Amino acid sequence: MRVLIIANSKPTESAPIKTNVNQTMVKAAIDDFASSQFIDMPEGGSWAYSLMVTPEYLGHVSDFELFEINTYVFTGGAHGMPYSEYLIFDLGTKKQIKLEDMLQSGKESRFKALAYDAYKTWVKTVDDDVSSYEKNWPFTLSDNATLTDKGIDIRYQHYAIGPYAYGMPVLSIPYSKLDGVIKPHFIPK
Question: For 95-131, b where at least 16 C-beta lie within 10 A, e where not — what string?
Answer without folding.
Answer: eebebeebbeeebeebbeebbeebbeebbeeebeeee
